[in-house]
Design a protein that fits this description.
Length: 203
């Protein structure tokens, strides 16, 4: 089974499958194994065959698939906390670091590079029923990204309700919002409202 080279921010995309984390009711995009497999299958050329094999297995082992899903969500939250800590220039909590390092160690190794129709790819064996296997490309991404965080400039949206993670690719390296059209404009409108309100009070 071939897996194409993964994007640096694939682990960020996975961590962001739970959004608006600062709100009382965050938005959850992964509500079961079917959602997780659909998300995996959408990741371009990187993981379609892996998702296909995992789908066949999950249909034959629904109870075990539910446990794998729970494990995958715990891993997602570990990833989010770890990436958010790096984005805020804080050290990753010891337990999160140990859990993430263990998951990366359990993922299939990238030790055989082969030619593919798209150019080059990593080859791994058939699907094994474990979150670290299904999420291997996500974990590879995290293993590459976190040690190079300063170069990639991991950020967390400054909107306290959002807290979305992203890579700052701006020339100045000072991007604060996940999206200027949403969170950036909300912050701008909020500052304007506060300024007008203060002027009204002063008058």
């Amino acid at each position: 089974m071939l897996i194409a080279p993964v994007r640096a921010d694939l682990c960020i995309d996975y961590a962001n499958t739970r959004s608006w984390r600062g709100r009382e009711k965050p938005v959850e995009r992964l509500n079961g194994m079917a959602d997780l497999l659909a998300w995996t299958a959408r990741q371009g050329d990187e993981v379609p065959r892996l998702a296909e094999q995992a789908t066949h297995w999950s249909k034959a082992h629904p109870t075990a698939a539910d446990r794998l899903f729970d494990e995958a969500i715990r891993l997602r939250e570990t990833l989010y906390r770890s990436l958010a800590a790096v984005a805020q220039n804080r050290g990753v909590e010891e337990q999160d670091f140990l859990d993430l390092a263990q998951a990366i160690a359990q993922a299939p190794p990238r030790n055989r590079l082969v030619r593919s129709q798209q150019g080059y790819a990593w080859t791994i064996g058939a699907f094994e029923p474990a979150a670290a296997y299904l999420l291997a490309p996500v974990l590879w991404s995290a293993g590459d990204l976190i040690p190079a965080a300063e170069r990639y400039r991991i950020r967390r949206c400054a909107n306290p309700e959002c807290r979305f993670l992203f890579l700052d690719e701006s020339k100045s390296g000072t991007r604060r919002w996940c999206d200027m059209a949403t969170c950036g404009n909300r912050a701008k409108a909020s500052r304007h409202y506060a300024k007008v309100r203060q002027s009204d009070i002063g008058a």
